[in-house]
Design goal:
The protein is an alpha/beta fold and 425 residues long. The chain is built from 12 helices and 13 strands. Bound molecules: S-adenosyl-L-homocysteine and iron/sulfur cluster. The site of S-adenosyl-L-homocysteine has 16 residues, from β10 and β12.
Length: 425
């Protein structure tokens, strides 16, 4: 049998620009042994895999389209359930392909309804995903890496080594698994969307339809712009009108400020942008977001001003974690307003009360301080809501995610932090 036309997962895990931690580059075993996992492949990738397995071009195109629809519109994982595919062909497919899901190691529910899953990849690497239900929406917080190369001082994930990038399949797999867990794959008839071939259809065909999962935020573990290709591949699948069909307006990508990748993110992915600003001067941002030593505030804000697609209807969100006596003064709030105005940014500010974790070196600002900070920004005409912490009791809130697999010792932690800072300096 000929080999599949695409690279195995291990070869698709890219080196990370600027990374200094050892990244596991060994083979990631394929789920399902020698069978090819179709989740995460593009439409062309599926078609190509079918052709390589022996179908002629016409049959591969037809079957590829059907399989895509079953995987992403209907959430089906067994070829036997794909009823419009000839019965005789289904075992043939089962022998060669799988439709994989991450393994669920642990599932927890917070007393506020937030749900957190600890997931395992085929190579045993662990990562987390969080679902946050609200009255009018349900947001899935998706991870892009196991661990993170960056080392923001207030973030629990930042205390992990980067173990590896997640693949597009592992990223989109989180969305599929959430749909499974929430029991909300459509059960009715299987009509293809009218313009199913139009992959750039950013409007999508998705209507909430009473469903729970309506929004996606790339705000789980990892820095999505240090895993650009896989994140882009996954989000293209999520936005595809003949599948999950989530509109780009319902997807937000959060970056700690990987300036050189921001324009490409806007042009090639086109989702909403959130930027983890967290400080308004070099001294403080250098300390709490060490990436600032590489890409400073001015460069970051200039990249925001140039972000394709940002306008008053689609504002850039500036995330600002409230750290007691560190970045929470009235002067800080005024400087934040000044910067936003200086760069003429269509912006809103999201104030995040610091979520504590064991050994964290900061405390959360008092509720009064957070409110005063918020008011100063509102008074300048910029929206600055305070994000309600969700899922703190199960360590599911912003910055609390961390899989146990690679917990380093205190001494290792200090060494990792020193190494990361030296590399950025
Ligand atoms: N790596 C990306 C996205 C993941 S973090 C980024 O940094 O933007 C999602 C958000 O949670 C970021 O704004 C991050 O700075 C913030 N965050 C991290 N640790 C936190 C903590 N302990 N409390 C509150 N917010 C935190
Ligand atoms: Fe990484 Fe984001 Fe945490 Fe910083 S805040 S360490 S970039 S996950």
């Amino acid at each position: 049998m000929r080999k599949p036309p695409f690279l195995p997962i291990c070869a698709r895990i890219m080196q990370i620009p600027g990374h200094i931690d050892p990244v596991i580059t060994g083979t990631v075993p394929l789920r399902g042994g020698n069978r090819v996992d179709l989740v995460g492949l593009t439409r062309e990738g599926i078609r190509g895999a079918l052709e390589e397995a022996g179908l002629d071009a016409k049959a591969a195109k037809l079957r590829g389209k059907q399989i895509w629809h079953w995987i992403y519109h209907r959430g089906v994982t067994e070829f036997d359930a794909m009823t419009d595919i000839a019965k005789a062909m289904r075992p043939w497919l089962t022998e060669r392909f799988i439709v994989g899901r991450p393994t669920v190691r642990e599932a927890q529910v917070s007393n506020d309804g937030t749900r957190k899953w600890l997931l395992a990849a085929a190579d045993g690497q662990e990562y987390e995903m969080v679902f946050i239900p609200d009255a009018d929406r349900g947001t899935l917080c998706v991870s892009s890496q196991v661990g993170c190369t960056l080392n923001c001082r207030f973030c629990h994930t930042g205390t992990m080594r980067l173990v590896r990038n997640l693949t597009a399949g592992e990223i989109v797999g989180q969305v599929l698994l959430a749909r499974d867990a929430l029991g909300e794959w459509p059960k009715g008839t299987m009509a293809s969307a009218p313009d199913a071939d139009d992959e750039d259809d950013d409007a999508g065909h998705y209507t909430a339809d009473g469903r729970m999962l309506t929004n996606i935020v790339m705000m789980g573990m990892g820095e999505p712009l240090y895993n650009f290709d896989e994140v882009k591949g996954a989000l293209k699948i999520v936005m595809d009108g003949d599948g999950l069909a989530l509109s780009k307006r319902r997807i937000t990508l959060s970056t700690s400020g990987v300036v050189p990748m921001m324009a490409r993110a806007g042009e090639e992915i086109g989702v909403n942008l959130a930027v983890s600003l967290h400080a308004v001067n070099k001294e403080v941002r250098d300390e709490i977001v060490p990436l600032n030593r590489k890409y400073g505030i001015e460069d970051l804000l200039a990249a925001c001003a140039a972000y394709p697609g940002a306008n008053n209807a689609r504002r850039i969100t500036f995330e600002y974690v409230m750290l007691k006596d560190k970045n929470d003064s009235d002067a800080d709030a005024r400087e934040l307003v000044r910067l936003i105005k200086q760069y003429k940014l269509p912006a809103k500010v999201n104030l995040i009360p610091f979520n504590p974790w064991p050994g964290a070196p900061y405390e959360c600002s008092s509720p009064e301080r957070v409110r005063a900070f918020s008011n100063l920004i509102f008074e300048a005409g910029i929206s600055a809501p305070i994000r309600t912490p969700r899922g703190r009791d199960i360590m599911a809130a912003c910055g609390q995610l961390k899989s146990a697999a690679t917990r380093p010792t205190r001494a290792e932690l200090d060494r990792i932090a020193a190494e990361k800072q030296a590399a950025l300096g």
